[in-house]
């Protein structure tokens, strides 16, 4: 298969499958062209076992895209949601460090937005779609920052560049894309985020 055929296959699974992870696990079980290295690297990038008991970034991402597939119908821009779910942590391989015995990935959302733009631009001509995906990635950590009143919160910038409700939807999929997540707890965080952004 050519790189474009592989991309279209991924796109089809993201938009049509009940559990896209099943097809993507099979597809990424063999070497792929270099264009897909940013996704392949997720398999070898570890995460904090406290926050991510499911393991590496790839494992987490597969759980997130399955969560997003359940909620595609809730999105104004389902294609952007699904690509953002797949690519939301694409910046972690470049930003993951061990600091004082803890695995961190500071600014992975900013690095990830840039990497996602480069990746998608190699296959898509729809600049609006690419922009929507990249801004969802860029701001997906705002749920944590806003709810915890952290100095990295940027509600004004987020509202200017993307849709808060779409960020919230991706954020819920992200929060639920881990082992032992509790839906009521995570929905509560997302609701607080939406309320704080509305002030």
Automatic annotation (TrEMBL):
Gene Ontology molecular function terms on file: nucleotide binding
**Domain of life of the organism encoding this protein:** Bacteria
Keywords of this entry: Nucleotide-binding
**SMART domains associated with the record:** HDc
Pfam families membership:
HD (PF01966)
CDD domains in the record, alphabetically?
HDc (cd00077)
Checking InterPro entries in the record gives: HD/PDEase_dom (IPR003607), HD_domain (IPR006674), HDIG_dom (IPR006675), tRNA_CCA-adding_enzyme (IPR050124)
Residue ranges of the HD/PDEase domain? 53-188
Q: What is this protein called?
A: HDIG domain-containing protein
Q: Which organism is it from?
A: Zongyangia hominis
